[in-house]
Fold these 2 entries.
Entry 1:
Amino acid sequence: MIDVKHFHLTEELAHEISGAGQQEQLFAALANAAERMGFDHFALAFDRRGGEAASMLVHNYPEAWAKIYIGLDLSATDPIRRAGERAVTGFAWRNVEHYIPLSRSDRQLMNVARASGVGDGFTVPRHLPGEAMGSCSFAVGPHTDLPCHMLNVAEIIGAIAIARARDFMGAAAPRPRSVLTERQRECVLWSARGKTAGEIADILGISQETVVRHLKMARDRYSVHCRSMLILCALYDGLIGFSDVYDWWRPD
Amino acid sequence: MTDQSTRAQAAPGDAALRAMFAARKQVFIDLLKWDLPALDGRFELDQFDNPHARYLILLDPDDLRHRASARLLPTTAPHLLGDLYPHLCPDGAPSGEAVWEISRFCLDPAQSAAERLDARNQLVSALADHALHNGIREYVGIAEARWFAKISGFGWSCRALGPALPGSAGPILAFGIRIDADTLPGLQRTGTWTPLGLKLEGGELAP
């Protein structure tokens, strides 16, 4: 059953978040959204890569947890953020093991968070490989249950908040033209599919020396020194796609 | 890094807390091989590092390096002796407003033996002083039997609260230290009392 009240709430909160002109307004809008949905805290993180890297974190976590999580700079090893790179929708933290295996350190981090006032949470992830990783989390205290009836609202609100964060941070402008020539790109693509220079030569019907030269010039254009970095650059630039490569080496 | 809530980064005590958690990883995990997970491979924290905890942290006054630290937990909230090791106290673990637990007594490994001894004595003196100024009448804690022999020789009134029982790395026991008007003279008599030369930071995770 569709709850009309939820629809109106979603529209209202979304409007407030996408209209936030400054980070202070975004903070206020998210704090309000978290409260209206029945959460205690929120955290909106956006890490831009490519070009000039920059990060943004807007949150109202309890101060003890902020001192630990931000003061000790633990976000890079946060299992929730790692899981976010593997999830297509928002997920509850208690289900994080559906996405990634947890180490003892990961569990300890979650224990420490709980002791500092952050229990369960719901994280909406957005991963743009090569450009950015964004996440919007809504959390409750250690003795509170997630407001399960609000998770679809949180899913939409979180996504809109990440989009707003991306507006603030700016995205690296797409390169107007490919860094690589079409022939170079083809060589990189087959290389990413695990083919040797000799095999690529056979596939493309050119000499092995020519393949080696194309790959060398491609490395020079990205100023990298090895084939694996070259492949990553082409992937991050969108010259080749994950799906172009995946079927060629997918383990059984 | 843009950070909306910059209070956490700007607070002066945070560098000291950071240094202490890193030193605890080096001491308890790397050196003493306690079976504890490290956060991000760099810091040792557990569920008792929460807003109830207070920390006494001694820093080198010149370069603010960590020299020694200890964690204090109120026995009216979750703590090690009451929650994890109550079996060490056959008569029940002491608790109350005036009873605090000392844990993670940590001497930084990156100092000479003489510096370590000096830092240890200053930390013991600071603990006694902290108790006298904050209405704490008894400290409790858990120690390996060897370490207990040292603690009980500092000159304060320190007693075992039960028999030594096997722990993961040798026998451990619970101890209690009474703090009263005789504490400072006692520490002075043995030469443990050392006036503060290091910089004392009173850390807290609570707002």
Entry 2:
Amino acid sequence: MNWIPKIFRRGKLYDDLSEEIRLHIEERKEQLVGEGLSPKEAEREARRAFGNQTLVEERSRAVWQWPALESMWSDMRFAVRQLRRSPGFTVAAVVTLALAIGSNAMVFSIMNAFLLRPLNVPRAQSLFALFRPDGDSGESYPDYLDLRDRTHSFDGLVAYDVLTAGLDTGDSPSRAWVEEASGNYFDAMGLQPYLRPILPRLR
Amino acid sequence: MMILESLRRQPAHGYALVQHIQQRSNNLLQVEEGSLYPALQRLLKAKLVRADWGVSATNRRVRTYQITASGLRHLEQQISSFERMFEGITLVLRPSKSTST
């Protein structure tokens, strides 16, 4: 962890460097004045001989830095300054991002709950959904009964459908999502219904 | 390597180092004076040299660099590998002896 004090020591390192470079140019200038140049010419010549002072300081400081990390940090600071300068744009950007992230999160939560996570039933990995490839209208009930009675591949076969129904709780009837299922639903899923017996065993 | 060699002879500040390198090379090496400083910072970071503020013989405030023990070891290794490389280059560039009969 000896990099922590190094970060705090950097200010001094950079100050030393700047001071050292300033003294270097000054010394050169004085030497040139001693050789007969005017102070102005000497100054120009000393700076020319030294090269690009800003670049030299930057490269020297870079030795003590983590370039990728620090350039990211300065980019972030620049972004914050720009955002502060135009609050209207900032608000619009933040609201847009918040809405986009929020709706994405919601869609993902729904997908996750219904599609990605296995159902909370015993042996969820043995559950399969059967569909006919040539249509989306579902099975007729007699077909379901034939399939259920003749299947040898599964322990049980359940029929279900999702629909909406009117729910009358007294004062204000409302619309509710309902799942209707065949009588063997809980047995086939390996679940105990909370209220039982709930479904009559139909033929 | 040239900086370390100059500092092995005697501790010096940046400006004196530039002068020393130019004089020793009979002014063949005309490097931009500023390019010395990133190199000095790398040596400082690697602890091959150390720097202290002081006063020069001409009564100037200067930051004097001194070679460290690990700097001396590093210099020896650098010189030896440079000499091997230089020898190799010389052998390649030397005109081959004609074996015509």
